[in-house]
Predict the structure.
Amino acid sequence: METNKLHFKGRDLLSLHDFTPGEVMAIIELAGEFKEKQKRKVPHPYLQGKALGMIFQKSSTRTRVSFEVAMYQLGGYPIFLNANDLQLGRGETIADTARALSRYLDGIMIRTYAQADVEELARHATIPVINGLTDLLHPCQILADLQTIMERKGTLAGLKLAYVGDGNNVCHSLLYGCAKVGMDISVASPDGYQPDREVISLASRDALLTGSKVEILTDPVEAVSGADVLVTDVWASMGQETEQARRSRVFSPYQVNEKLTAYARPDFIFLHCLPAHRGEEVTAEVIDGPHSAVWDEAENRLHAQKAVLALLL
Ligand code: CP
Ligand code: NVA
């Protein structure tokens, strides 16, 4: 970490939209450096003695484990906090929780429902707050996605990414992330499930600055045509379990299968944040096939989050 990255210190990661294109690229570069160090077994204890509290109001496999391991490998220590076991679960306010935790910890990662709750936590905390997924956004995931695309394609600007499926948290953070790094993004979602208007408008504004394109469509074939990167996600996110049956019907024409991927560039890569439902949003042929980069993508959560932690804490 030779570069002067002091301007990151103490900041929150609530949304990728809050970072400049240069800052997003700096995080991805540092993620690559951490990956190298990790592979060569070079110690990198940048957070010696620092503690990260991790509040989870939703389930997690990758986010929890990658943040925990990231903190250990950086010389710090993570503290897993199940929201139901905190006084938060018994009605203590987010503001008071933020004030108290700020006296013990060096950073807080939170996975919850409302983006407003993460913002409230950040407003009252005196330490950095990192968004580990809300109903609106999933910024840490998209940093790992961008790192994976960079590794596979050697560049980001000028590529085309197609997202097919629900206009959800992953889709929103992809819109922000692609626009920041100058990648074209085409989203295909059914009517009624398209991404949030404000996110589209903010991403489109960034895209103008980086010379990239944001396209919101309903036709998956149009979105996927000529794409370098194909991304999908579950049709029903955490918290939408009761809508599962209806969503399965609405989204069935949006399955990423070999018929659809035939429209992408021959050297396309496939990404999925996981967990995946084979036979729903993606077929086994695609997610387990030669174009899939989902395991590198999952691994890169560790490296990208190390970069975020080392920069912010
Ligand atoms: N992709 C992702 O965030 O996975 P988890 O829900 O397992 O953390
Ligand atoms: N959109 C999914 C992502 C899971 C990592 C959800 O919110 O459940």
